[in-house]
């Protein structure tokens, strides 16, 4: 059996697939905490992919001249950069989750009112039959669409939560 130096380890490739697939699944959730874990898993999977794509380890690239094959420093530099960016992004999502928990008592991402308005129009079949004065219709519909998140917030604040 011939194994070249550029043949990736099958276990690492499977681990990359599992990390990225699990991360994508968690990104599709509404909880910011799960989204954060999904971003971290995808980041680790991509870092592992870069490490595997960099090839086998060799001699240090910066010290002297040698006959041995040298390691490529680009994957390590990319991984270090990705770790720093992921750390900043993680801090941002944690801050958003904490603020959402302070304001609403949970860290779930709410529906967009505009999305609900479009979904309502689609259900009614009115989306295809738009009139020329679409901006007037949109303004009137925006007035009639009820924001359910505000109702939940008002109920919580009236219940003595704060």
Describe the structure.
By secondary structure, the protein is mainly α. The protein folds into 2 domains: about 10-60 and about 70-110, Helix Hairpins, CATH 1.10.287.3510; about 115-145. The chain contains 6 helices and no strands. Helix 1 (about 10-25) runs antiparallel to helix 2 and helix 2 (about 30-55) runs antiparallel to helix 3. The radius of gyration is 25 Å and the shape is elongated. The chain starts with 9 loop residues before the first helix and ends with a helix. The model has no long low-confidence stretch (mean pLDDT about 80).
Count of distinct strands: 0
N-to-C SSE string, H for helix and E for strand: HHHHHH
Instruction: State the helical fraction.
Output: 55-70%
Q: What does the overall shape look like?
A: elongated
**Any idea of the CATH topology of the largest domain?**
Helix Hairpins
Largest sheet at a glance? Answer: none
CATH architecture tag of the largest domain: Orthogonal Bundle
User: In percent terms, what proportion of residues is strand?
Assistant: under 5%
Radius of gyration: 25 Å
Low-pLDDT stretches are: none
Q: What is the terminal separation in angstroms?
A: 69 Å
Name of the CATH first level of the largest domain: Mainly Alpha
Question: How large is the count of helical segments?
Answer: 6
Overall pLDDT: 78
Q: Which structural class is indicated by helix and strand composition?
A: mainly alpha
- What is the number of independent domains? 2
Protein name: Multisubunit sodium/proton antiporter MrpC subunit
InterPro entries: CPA3_antiporter_subunitC (IPR050601), NUOK/Mnh_C1-like (IPR039428)
Biased composition (Basic and acidic residues): 124-133
Family: Belongs to the CPA3 antiporters (TC 2.A.63) subunit C family.
